[in-house]
Design brief:
Keywords: Membrane, Transmembrane, Transmembrane helix. This protein is mostly helical. Helix content is 84%, strand content 0%. α1 packs across α3. It is elongated and about 45 Å long. The model has no long low-confidence stretch (mean pLDDT 92).
């Protein structure tokens, strides 16, 4: 499962950088690469969102590591 954690974290970081670019420069990097709401960009947005939801479980795992 460690590979899935690392992959999820990487996708969420990419999503965070994309939101940073949107917030500062009004530049959507995913839309620039794959088109504005094409099926491929929608898949990428969905994967980033699902990985973000999955990483919520990280809070519980961090808490159980410190006990």
């Amino acid at each position: 499962m460690k590979w899935f954690d690392n992959t999820s974290l990487t996708l969420v970081i990419i999503g965070a950088v994309n939101w940073l670019l949107i917030g500062i420069f009004r530049f959507d990097f995913v839309a620039f690469l794959f088109g504005n709401l094409t099926w491929l960009s929608r898949i990428i947005y969905t994967l980033v969102g699902l990985c973000g939801l999955y990483l919520i479980s990280l809070y519980g795992r961090i808490g159980s590591m410190s006990d």
